Amino acid sequence: MSISSLSIYLDLSYNALFGSVPSEVGLLRDLSDLDLSHNRLSGIFPNTISGCISLQRLHLDGNSFTGEIPQGLSVLRGLQDLDLSRNNFSGLIPSFLDELHLLNLNLSFNRLQGPVPLDGVFRNTSAISLQDLLKATDGFSEANVIGSDRFSTVYKGVLEDGPSETVVAVKVLKLNIRGAQKSFLSECNALRGARHRNLLKILSISLSIDFRGNDFTALIYQFKANGSLENWLHRNENMDRYLTLMQRLNIAIDVACAVEYLHSGTGSDIIVHGDLKPSNILLDDDMTAHVGDFGLAKVMSNISSGFAAGESSSIELGDHWLYCTRPISDTLLSEYANLHNFVANSLPDRAMEIADPLIVLKEGHIVLTTNLGGCLASVLGIGVACSRELSQDRISITDVFIELNKNRIKCLALGLN
Predict the structure, then answer these.
(1) pTM to 2 decimals?
(2) What stretch or stretches form a coiled coil here (predicted)?
């Protein structure tokens, strides 16, 4: 058997292989999967990889390869999964990666510079350097921190482009935390082909080396002036930040619209956000909601996942707009086990009792108490229907969107706005 007849799959990972990869690798024309990860391989990876015209997956992570990312990869139009992480590749990240339409790309822990030129949502974005972001955030000063979680810190920044300025949110990954890189890749994979007005838009990605010589990864987002929904719900003592019932309903509709799109509107794949909560819902100047933070998102096939277009699960919305309720004590939560049971056992007759007191105080005088209670009960009932224990008992996301809009019309008819 000649070397050229070797086909389909070659896995040599987690061995003690050392030295360079021979140029003859390009003779493996029928090879679809090559895994050389976690060895002691070094040197410049051969450009003859261009001869592997059937290659779909290439993993070289965990070695000591040097030089630039091989230009030979540019002709491999079937390549879907490329992992070059944890090597010593250097130079600029090549623009041809954008033309490969990769489903997975990992370039972390190298000495590469420049933005990641990914397809879809990242196409036609401008290159933003480490220096631009340093200036934009005043040296990543604590005064500009607008959010933080386990895997990242988010800074407000102002990017200058000639005479104009763009206010952005810069999400800097904590690459020393285990799982941060996976979170970054999940976010990129989830949003690369997603376009919707209620999704937080990524403007660009910066993948570089910081001034200490450490790897630096950041995502640059549109800045939303009114911050997160969580900040609005946790009001200050003066309670001068108040969401009306109609604003809450509009936010719920925006989020439902985004989830419906993610579950059925991105072609053959569906996206499950996996971490939908008030802190990940951002509000712009007009109080329009945008779903962000896809670090825990999963992209699944429509065929294998069991999600049918228009019939996708609404469980992600579970407790989302039950925020119309008042804060619940630990005692009550212990008694009812969860928020779903507490609300379900209070509807429809006790809707006014469990409602956020500010809704009753500020809007109760506009309409009859019975009308306001009925409106609240109807809206909260949709949240309960989303979070039922058994999946077959939950309302579909398409029906959620329809029912919320019906309730919006009813509330407007009552004079609420």
Answers:
(1) 0.68
(2) none
